[in-house]
Design brief:
Strand order of the largest sheet: 3-2-1-4-5-8
Number of domains: 1
Number of helices: 5
CATH class: Alpha Beta
Amino acid sequence: MSNTALLLIDLQNDYYPTYDGAKWPLSGTEMASKNAASLLAQFRDNKMPIIHVRHEFPSDDAPFFLPHSAGSKIHPSVEPTEGEAVILKHHINSFRNTDLQKTLEKFKVEKLIIVGAMSHMCIDAVTRAAVDFGYECHVAHDACATLDLEFNGVTVPAHHVHHAFMAALSFGYCKVESTDEILELVR
């Protein structure tokens, strides 16, 4: 897959239940991160573009990803290496008020492999925006994580939230595939 970049969204300490002091632990973060790390290794081996996106809220009264906090740092399992782009964002959509679009243009990217968190927020938002900008998108469903949600007195389990959003994205926006299927594409 030429002109393809790996986009890692918000794989930050506060989302990991195993991280001591995590402020917003998700369901399945460790497994998602393990799969994202497999893709990251393949992209590094192939010398393909890698872009890490890191979220920080602009004030200290946020529930997680506080400015300059340890919880807002990218998790060591998918930590950037020298030369890999890191985009700081303050909104759900990774394109909003960031250099993401310019970075993708610099690398002449046409296709994106998207992984990270949360499935129902930042993964959904970046995928839809990227498609609107003309990128071909692939989401590695098993390299994304989310959490239980509550609406109108009903708790929706994380795996239902995740599957509903993956189904919606695959219905009209992108290819939603497993990590193994995407690894085959980029080998």
